[in-house]
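Subject: Gliding motility lipoprotein GldH structure
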Amino acid sequence: MKHFFLAAASLLLFVAACKPPKLDVYEKNLEIPGHEWSSDYKPSFEINIQPEDTAWLYNIYVNIRHTDAYPYSNIWLLIGTRYPGDSIPKEQRVELPLADVAGKWSGTGIDDIFEHRIFIQQRATFNVPGTYKFSFEQNMRQNPLPYVMNVGLRIEKAGKRP
């Protein structure tokens, strides 16, 4: 009986390990080469949405990490989203504030490095299972954009769809 229980428990763990992971939180940050973000460098992030993930709402954030020497109080990005089955991404230009009107950085900082998690979409849906690809292109007048260290994407579950 003891061997049967161990075999059944092992099989259950194996089956559970083979299931694709559900999207509770996705977060990935990529380094900007040389800490100078050229508009030619377009970091991208791929998220594989399973059928059960389509029943949820998600909050989407952009992560930005820069030094205190970053010369602007904001950053403009072109955010591309390619949906499963589409070959051309849909682009949207967004402004991400990094400092208040007095010039104080709004993110968290240690020494001269500041990190921001900036909310860009609330209660987003992924209607179709498959691979979604997000890309970020800096869209500032200065190119390359100095003192930007990392850029990233965070997607977190926000609740069940109504």
